[in-house]
Fold:
Amino acid sequence: MKEPAPVPLPRVEGAAFSGVHVPLIERYYERLPFEPGDKLVSLQEGSTPLLRAPVLSEMVGATVRLKLEGANPTGSFKDRGMTCAVSAAVREGAKAVICASTGNTAASAAAYAARAGITCAVIVPEGKIAAGKMAQTLVHGARVISLQGNFDQALTLVRELTATHPIALVNSVNEFRIEGQKTAAFEIHEGLEGGCEALCIPVGNAGNITSYWRGFRELGASPKMFGFQAEGAAPLVEGKVIEHPETVASAIRIGNPVRWEDAMAAATDSRGAIRVLSDKEILHAYRLLASREGMFCEPASAASVAGLLKYGADGAEQVVCVLTGRGLKDPETAMANNDGKIIQCAVDMARIEEAVLGDP
Ligand SMILES: *Cc1c(COP(=O)(O)O)cnc(C)c1O
Structure:
């Protein structure tokens, strides 16, 4: 029988990648510390959409796009780093990986470890992990250690532990994480044909802003890097370690970022800045994104947009906001912060009519 002719995929403006989807490491072999033939641990991460945001564009008077990192396999950008970190760990013969996490690193490490057939342990601050992230980590079969302390203490402990035990550390102190995450900058650079003038991004442990800047620099590009921290967890803005970081944006609830110097260098060298936002401003952007742009991200991710709305982009015309993780990760925050409405209704047509069509 004659094979049907392949239908070419249409190239759609705003689609970051059309064609056969390949694992991130294969897409960027020549720029990553891997060789063809290395056994890769991949869930087909990367190649995420770069979506136009018409409402935001109108509001700030620039062309604003959203880099949808929640489209990665476990719902956050951590997968870009994790495919590299876990592939490298397996290449080096590791049988286990470990991380400290505010949630997404744990979910990602657990998934990639499951895929690789190795064990995973995660240390998380007690009671501080969003429900979706905890559910993922558990269902992938990781060992979850709930620490009576904060993220920074968890990270100090895993660093000590991995110094004396043959377990691979997959936090963003791991160079492979930074290498993998820089590919998002490549995708933006390709998608906008080098036209990105400003990048807005939430900053927690500061691995991601470090990665983006490295990625852009490798291509000779230098968009302004605008990083955003939450008021109760803004060590880079205050210039000092925060002992008890607090914010609704749990993914950036970090008081002592491991990539401190790198993040400051990214902001300074790109003529950008690291700035601060209140939880109220973050939640306003969170609801705006969901209700006006149709994009449900997690609270930390909305900091990129909140920052753009508050501070502008210093005259840049092509702006990209990184939406680092998916809204479903944190259903509690969504349920507590929305303008939606649930109307109780009896099984009765008159009541239904009133509920559906009546004044809100
Ligand atoms: C990890 C994470 C961040 C912060 O990234 P850093 O590299 O720690 O600065 C922001 N948003 C989400 C959703 C994350 O998972």
